[in-house]
Every structure is written in C-alpha cells, then in structure tokens.
Amino acid sequence: MAEQLxxxxxxxxxxxxxxxxxxxxxxxxxxxxxxxxxxxxxxFMLGAYMGTTVLVTTGSFWLALLGASVAIALLGAALQITxxxxxxxxxxxxxxxxxxxxxxxxQNYALWQYGPVARKIQEPITSQFQFFHIQFPWYRIxxxxxxxxxxxALWLFLKYGKYGIWIRATTQDRIMASAMGIxxxxxxxxxxxxxxxxxxxxxxxxxxLVGVNHAMGLDWILKAFIVVVVGGMGNLGGSIxxxxxxxxxxxxxxxxVSPAQAVIVSFVVLILTLLFRPTGLFVPxxx
Amino acid sequence: xxxxxxxxTYYGKSHILHGVSLEVRPGEVVGLLGRNGVGKSTTLKTIxxxxxxxxxxxxxxxxxxARTAPHRLARLGIGYVPEDRRIFRLLTVMENLRxxxxxxxxxxxxxxxxLDKVYQSFxxxxxxxxxxxxxxxxxxxxxxxxxxAMMLEPKIILLDEPTxxxxxxxxxxxxxxxxxxxxxxxxxxLVEQNVPLTLEVSDRIYIxxxxxxxxxxxxxxxxSDDSVIHQYLGV
Lengths: 287, 235
Hints:
- The complex is a heterodimer.
- Helices cover 75% and strands 3% of the residues of chain A.
- Chain A has helices spanning 2-33, 40-58, 61-84, 92-114, 138-160, 162-172, 174-179, 184-210, 216-231, 236-253, 259-262, 264-276, and strands spanning 128-131, 134-137.
- Chain B has a domain at 2-85 and 154-233: 3-Layer(aba) Sandwich (Rossmann fold), CATH 3.40.50.
- The relative contact order of chain B is 0.19.
- The A-B interface holds A 162, 165-166, 168-169, 172-173, 175-185 and B 48, 50, 69-71, 73-75, 80, 82, 86, 88-91, 95, 98-100, 102-103, 148-149, 152.
C-alpha cells in the first residue's frame, strides 16, 4: 500500500506541475486584465500542432518547444490587439464572448488545417526507470521539472524585472499605473503573449503523452479553470498550489476508483470551494 | 505652460465641469479651492487624461493634450498625486518608486540622486523601503504618493488634497515638500480643503463653484482680504 501511495504521489506531482503551467498562463491573464480567456485551451492545442510542424522540419524537440512558444506568443499578441484591446472597459461578458469566439475559430481552423487524425510528437527522452513495481517514464519527470522551471522564471521576472514591476503595478491599479507612465495597453498585450506562450509550451510538452488533435485543449482547459477558481482567480501561487492539490487528490482517488471516475474529485473540490470559500482556497481571508 | 480652456467633463451622464479655464505658468504654485463636489478633483483627472473632456482644450507646453493617454502625459512631465493616494499596496516602497524610475534614459547616477532626494525629504520612506506600500500609515502613504510622482522628474505636479486626514506634524512635512518643489521650479496645481495652507504656499488662487471657476486672484491679495474666501467657502 505504501508503494502504491508513493507511485500515485509521483504521478500526482508530475501531472500537477503540467497543469500548473497551463493554469499559470490563464490566471496571469485574468489577474491583470480581468479577461477569462476561453481560448487558452486552443492556444495550448495550436502550440502542440506548431510543435509537430517544427519537429518535422528540424527534428529537434527543444527547437519545437521554443518555436511553438514564440509563434503562439505572436499569435496571442495579435489576437489581443485585434479582439480584446477594443473591449477594454466594457462589460466582462463581452470578453468572455470574444475569447469563446476565438476558441471556436481556432479549433475549427486546426480541424481544417490538420485534419481529424491525431498526430504524434515523439518525446525526446524515451527511457524509463524502475519505481517499485512499475516502469516510470523519465519524460514525465522532465516535463514536471521544466514546468516548474518555466513557472519559476515567470515568478522571478514578475518579482525583480523592470517589466515585472510594471505588470504587478498594472494588476493592482491600472489607472495609477498609467499615470506613472506605464504603457498599460502594451503591458496587456505582453501579458497575453506571455500567457499564450506558456499555453503553447505546455501543449508541446504534453503532446507526447496524449497525441495532438484539435480537441486536446478541452480537457486541460476545463481542469485549468477548476484550479484557477480553487486557487483564487488571478492568484498565481494559489493556482500552482491548487494544481498540485487537485492532481494529487485525483491520483490518490484512482487507487480506489477508475482514473476516469477520479476526475470527479476535481469537481467535488470545485463545488466545495465555491460553496464554502468562493474567493479561493489558497488566498488569505479577505478583510 | 499648462492652459486649460473651457473644458466640459461628464461622469456618465452627469455634467461635472461646465467650462473650466485656468492656467499654470512654469514654476508656479497654483491653488484650486472650492467646496466639496464642485469639480476640483475632476479638473485634475481631466488634465491627467483619466477622463476625456467632451469640449474645450488643454495645452501643455504648446501641445494639445486633451485626448492624450495618461502614460504619455506622465512622460511629457505631468506628475499626478491622487486624492486617495493610490499606492500600489502589494508593491514595496522601493517598487512603488521604481514604477516612476524605470524609464528610458534614467542613468544609475540620476536614479541615486532622485532616490537620495526623496529619502532626505521623507526619511521614513528610506527606513521602510522593503515594506509593502499597503502596510504604511496614511501619512506615510501620502509621502510615498508624492515621492513616487517626483521620480518622474515632472515639470508640473497635480496634487489632490495632500493633507486630507493627516496629523499636524505630517501637514507640516507636506508643506515643506511643496516648498522644496517650488524652489526647484516644479510647478504645482494644488487642490486643497485646507485654506490657510493653500493661501500660504500658493502664488495664485482659483476658486471653483458648481463646475466653473468663479474667482481668480493672487494669493497675497486673498491673504490680506478674506471676504472672497468667506463668500465662496464660508470660512
């Protein structure tokens, strides 16, 4: 039993880190712009497709990761400028409709461009290690560490970088930030681009585990939304903790029920959070 | 340097400013007095580009700025210290100052000069530089709000009720910093409820009533004859 628990712990932590990467981009965009980005899953999916293209051309997984992130960051910036920037200051409902519209367009574009058959990204590391009685792929460990590294880099950038301070100032008080000479519209575009790049990076990293298809964003985005709400909307640290928490719960639950049923755990956590602590589990009690 | 010509500003459907005109010359301290709700703060917000006027012109150093974005105005040299201070509460004191310091063309040397200057005027900010802005007292937050605007090396500062709710000792400190800025030829457009302070530090005074400027005089004239102040402010 102890072995089983340790195995599930490892599975839970590695999926939790990937989920945290998806959720970080989502929560960053919400925190700074009050935009609930329903197209985040599609950016994740397009990132994975872009990864397959670069991988086929160059043969390098790492170039694919980099290339897809940059390409999707540019796409994100273009989407933000054309669709979201004109909606600043309007009812939040309009941005929900806009990003939902973008998600439909991107999804159908992917279906039209790449077809319904899933594509495969070959993982760069195929070796496995013995972990008690199972063979555990090294690749899962690598993506967990890479996700942690990307999130860590984002955190350092926000904490110490000149533009990180601009972003945090804009998050707290958009109007005062602009009165201090911070180009707020540009900060919004940059943040959307960063969030998009993070979605794309997670798409490429996760591609080898699930196969790339036009609907692959759906599952992930749903889970990412759950952890973003559970962690407290717009709270980066909270989303990361919630990602690990929910993933670990699911991993442990699958000891007793099938993995498909274990997904229910996330929803139970979501409902309980909304009922008893709607501001999020991992935020200080609001005063 | 700054000319406001007959501006009309609305908040939604309510018409707040009904053609406000005023002028601030280089290096001058200009007081803007009036009862609550006559549009003093709205005048400052309109100059700062936070609300756009529907009519009228605002000209800063020869450039029309009525439709210019606030961040461009900040870079042109207009500093803004809002009534509610609007400190970035989760940023440290130092980070609050950096929002104004991290501009293009500020050398390391220049940064240190600017920081030294505010730390000298407000030693408490030096002590608390790594503390979150939200943990400061009201008076300290006011100092930080002024210090933050000074980081932009503005040519004019729009100062909205800087002494509101402060202890007399803090009020004295604010008066000192206004004096310092004045000596450095930074122009100030000061909105205040504290009439004696405003008359003391200002060169000229505008008095507003119901969204328009009703009276305009040299501060010295109002200091020696307070009948006008009585008439409009009832004090």
